[in-house]
Every structure is written in C-alpha cells, then in structure tokens.
Design goal:
The complex is a heterodimer of chains A (about 200) and B (about 170). Chain A has about 200 residues and is of the alpha+beta class. Chain A folds into two domains: about 60 residues; about 140 residues, Umud Fragment, subunit A (Ribbon), CATH 2.10.109. Helices cover about 40% and strands about 25% of the residues of chain A. Chain A has four helices and ten strands. In chain A, the strands form two sheets. In chain A, strands 1, 2, 3, 4, 7, 8, 9 and 10 form an eight-stranded antiparallel sheet that branches. Chain A has a two-stranded antiparallel sheet with strand order 5-6. The N and C termini of chain A lie far apart (about 120 Å). Chain B has one domain: Umud Fragment, subunit A, CATH 2.10.109.10. The N and C termini of chain B lie far apart (about 80 Å). Classes of the chains: A alpha+beta (about 200), B alpha+beta (about 170). At the A-B interface, α1, β4 and β8 of A face α1 and β8 of B. Chain B: It comes from Gouania willdenowi (Blunt-snouted clingfish). Chain B: Keywords: Hydrolase, Membrane, Mitochondrion, Mitochondrion inner membrane, Protease, Transmembrane, Transmembrane helix. Chain B: One of its GO terms (molecular function) is serine-type endopeptidase activity. Chain B: One of its GO terms (cellular component) is mitochondrial inner membrane peptidase complex.
C-alpha cells in the first residue's frame, strides 16, 4: 500500500516536474529571445548613433561646416544672416593666406566666433590706426599671430582695437556663400582698398 | 572561393576602418587625449628627473568643453607663438585677477576677459605668460588629469598653486 502511494507521488512529481520544466523552458526561451531582441536592437541603434555622430564630428571638425553669420562688421561682402560654408582644411594645413575671410574664436569670449578678413600674417607690417586717427601708426604682426579686420571699416571691432590674435584661434576659412541664392558663389575676390593695396604690395615684393 | 573570402575580408576591414577611425578621432578630440610631456618647464610636477624619461599625461578634454578651469590646474594650451605646438602649464590667474608678474614687461597685470595667466612650475626655464602675456581661453586644449606613464608615478593630478603665486587677494575682498 505504501509502495503504491509512493509510486503514485513519484509519477505525479515526474509529470509535474516535466510540465514545469517544459513550461519554464518555453517561457525562459521566449523571454530570453525577447530580451535579446530588444537589447540587440537598442545596442544596434546606439552603435549607429555613436558611429554617425563620430563621422559627423570628424566632418565638421576637419572638412567644413555651415555657418550663419550675423552682425554688420563684414558688410558689404557678407551681410547679416548670410549662410556660408567654412572649410577647416586650410587651417589645419596652415594654408591661410592674406585676404582670406576666416572665422575665429573671439579672444575675449571663447564661446563667440568672429568673422573677419586676414590683413596680415606673422611678420607683416600693418596699419593700426583707426579711421578717426590722423596719424598713421604701423606695427609688425608677431610670430604665430594674424591681423584681422572687418570689411566694414566704420563698424567693426577687430585687430585695430584688440591687436593681433593667435593663429590657433582661427577655426576655418569661409570659401562659399550659400544663401541668399542670388549672391551664391565664392568669396575669394573682393574688397576694400586696404587689402588690394597690401596684396599688390606683397605681390610686388 | 578564396577570392570571395578575400573580398569579404576586405569589406569587413574597410567597414571596420570607417568605424574605428572616426570614433578614435572623436574620442581624442572630445573626451581624452594622451600626450608626452617634453622639456623641463613643469619640474618638479612633471618630468622630475629630466632628460632620461618623459612623462605621459592623460588630458581631460571633456571637462574643458565649456572653458571652465580652476586656478592651480595643469592645462595644455595651443601655443600662441606656434599654432602647431601645445604647451603644458599651470593656471595661475583667471579673468579679472590681478597678478604680480615675474619677468613680464609690466610688474602687475590685470587679466583681460576670456584670458588666463599660465606659468610653468620651473621659473626661469619656462616659456609662459611671463613671455607672451595672458593667453586667450580659446586656445585651451585640455586639463591634465592623470600622470599615466612611469607606472610608479601613476597619480591623479590635483590643482595646487605654488606658494606665493596666485592672484592678489586684496582685489577680491573689495
């Protein structure tokens, strides 16, 4: 009699255990599958985000970026709210030349950028006088520095106010104007007398 | 078969390359940078023996993304004299501080807005703000957070001002 009961219990246990195992195995399987799916997808999205983020960073940092310019200092070459493309390669290769329009970090506020024309490179003699001055004063640009001036002589805060700025502050060279569409094109040629004079002066040397 | 396998291998290599290079460049630009310290200008904090073995430091670039540094931090700065070169110095004064200079043209200097006063620890053997004046904050490159190379000198670098250097206190109190 006891043997009969034991055998019955055993059989039940086996059956229930079997059932449990089957159930647990199945549910575990689907859970793991689901988890793996969700996890894998999240990881994949994260990976793609990081990858494309890094590619975007490299493109903006080493090739070029689009910039909306504001302020009157570069009129008439660039007026308020124009969109330009600034390329970074010539800055990294140290190929900035006289007459280029560059975007640089402001020496007094690193979060602000300024857009000016390069008037002199290191060792050049530049005219430091503001328009109102009667006497013309000259100075030499020190090593590793550039002299920046806005095209709008009357309304521009530039090297005439705060002196030469370090070359390493330059972020990029403005090479293409994209907006407004009627003035689309390169910006290489142009500007006011001072640059023409200094460029012809450098050419004749 | 071999050609196919080779092509698959090449494709995997190229795609891996296009992932690895941008990720590495971004990490070096944004998060952390490893640089070897040359010269004696930061003795005795860095390169204490001088000559024999150069220290390697970890530059934390994430913490300076908003141009926030403390007095006493060791920072790397793009040299204002030579844009290709980076210099590593200690921050002595922030914008608005009054500094007693060591060998600058003016005895006392007020640091202009957006500028730092940096000096090497080894006075007299360092090309620093005493030569070229305050440097613009925009030239800031990174903050040296750890010495990682000679393994026996592995340590976190704490901000510390050298004795009797720093901003003149009287101006702050007023």
């Amino acid at each position: 009699m006891t043997a009969e009961i034991v055998a019955k219990q055993f059989l039940e246990a086996v059956r229930s255990k079997d059932l449990l195992w089957w159930l647990s195995g199945r549910s575990e399987h689907t859970l793991v599958d689901m988890f793996r799916n969700v996890f894998g997808k999240t990881l994949g999205i994260l990976g793609y985000t990081i990858q494309y983020g890094c590619i975007a960073h490299c493109a903006f940092e080493y090739i070029g970026e689009f910039v909306v310019l504001s302020g009157p200092s570069m009129e008439p070459t660039i007026v308020n709210h124009d969109i330009v493309f600034s390329e970074r390669l010539s800055r990294h290769l140290c190929k900035i030349q006289k007459g280029d329009i560059v975007i640089a970090k402001s020496p007094f506020d690193p979060n602000m950028n300024i857009c000016k024309r390069v008037i002199g490179l290191e060792g050049d003699k530049v005219c430091t006088s503001v328009l109102s001055d009667l006497l013309k004063t000259h100075t030499y640009v020190p090593k590793g520095h550039v002299w920046l001036e806005g095209d709008n002589f009357r309304n521009s805060t530039d090297s005439r106010n705060y002196g030469p700025i370090p070359y390493a502050l330059i972020r990029g060279r403005v090479c293409l104007k994209l907006w407004p569409p009627q003035s689309f094109g390169t910006l290489s040629e142009s500007p006011t007398k001072a640059i023409i004079k200094s460029q012809s002066g450098s050419n004749s040397d | 078969m071999a050609q196919q396998a080779g092509r698959r291998y090449l494709r995997a290599f190229v795609s891996g390359f296009f992932v690895a290079v941008p990720v590495t460049v971004t990490v070096l630009d944004r998060l952390a940078y490893v640089a070897r310290v040359e010269g004696v200008s930061m003795q005795p904090s860095l390169n204490p023996e001088g000559g024999s073995e150069d220290d390697v430091v970890l530059l934390d670039r994430w913490s300076v993304r908003n141009f926030q540094v403390q007095r006493g931090d060791v920072v790397s700065v793009l040299s204002p004299r030579n844009p290709q070169q980076k210099i590593i110095k200690r921050v002595i004064g922030l914008e608005g501080d009054f500094i007693r200079t060591l060998s600058y043209k003016n005895r006392y200097v007020r640091i202009p807005d957006g500028h730092l006063w940096i000096e090497g620890d080894h006075h007299g053997h360092s090309l620093d703000s005493n030569n070229f004046g305050p440097v613009s904050m925009g030239l800031l490159h990174g903050r040296a957070s750890h010495i990682i190379w000679p393994p026996n000198r592995w340590q976190r670098m704490k901000p510390s001002l050298p004795p009797n250097r720093g901003p003149l206190e009287t101006e702050d109190d007023d």
